[in-house]
């Protein structure tokens, strides 16, 4: 029986793993913007690549039953390819949504009660929406491409060897 694309167990496991990556992404990007003179987009890139490392190991171990495979090199290459697309969705999607929300709606901020910390809601919601789009594309691509033997890696190696 072929593996369903959206089976409940894989989707829940991947959601937990992705939530860990998303939390890492948000935390790193926020800290970098708060502590260093770094742009929103640069902070998103840095946060994304930190979550990439966390995501690879957790996805491999828990989400798609790939922990016993001997195809680690293949999976790393495929995971990296999918992650580049995901990074573009996350970073540029966030930046575009942030710019649009500022232009169309104006800036929204929230002062955390009993503190002096002001949260930029435009940035936060833009990043969360873009990460949601990235989650969906990652789930499908990792399940159907990264952690499945598709023959892609062998074809890529043949193209690279002269």
Q: Topology, please?
A:
Layout: H1 8-35, H2 40-63, H3 72-105, E1 109-111, E2 118-120, H4 121-146, H5 152-160
Antiparallel strand pairs: 1-2
Helix pairs in contact: 1-2, 1-4, 2-3, 3-4
What do these coordinates show?
It is a single chain. This protein has helices at 8-35, 40-63, 72-105, 121-146, 152-160, and strands at 109-111, 118-120. It has 162 residues and is mostly helical. A two-stranded antiparallel sheet has the order 1-2. A hairpin with a 6-residue loop joins β1 and β2 (118-120). The longest helix is centred in the middle third of the chain and has 34 residues, at 72-105. It starts with 7 loop residues before the first helix and ends with a helix. 27% of the residues are buried.
Keywords:
162 residues, mainly alpha, two-stranded antiparallel ribbon
Summarize the structure.
Helices cover about 75% and strands about 5% of the residues. By secondary structure, the protein is mainly alpha-helical.
């Amino acid at each position: 029986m072929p593996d369903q694309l959206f089976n409940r167990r894989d989707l829940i496991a991947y959601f937990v793993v992705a939530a860990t990556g998303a939390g890492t992404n948000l935390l790193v990007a926020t800290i970098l913007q708060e502590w260093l003179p770094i742009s929103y987009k640069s902070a998103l890139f840095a946060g994304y690549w930190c979550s990439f490392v966390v995501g690879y190991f957790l996805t491999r171990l828990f989400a798609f039953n790939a922990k016993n495979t001997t195809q680690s090199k293949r999976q790393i290459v495929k995971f990296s390819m999918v992650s580049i697309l995901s990074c573009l969705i996350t970073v540029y999607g966030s930046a575009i949504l942030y710019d649009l929300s500022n232009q169309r709606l104006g800036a929204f901020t929230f002062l955390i009660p009993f503190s002096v910390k002001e949260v930029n809601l435009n940035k936060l919601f833009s990043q969360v929406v873009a990460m949601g789009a990235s989650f969906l594309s990652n789930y499908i691509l990792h399940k159907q491409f990264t952690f499945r033997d598709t023959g892609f890696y062998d074809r890529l190696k043949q193209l690279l060897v002269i």
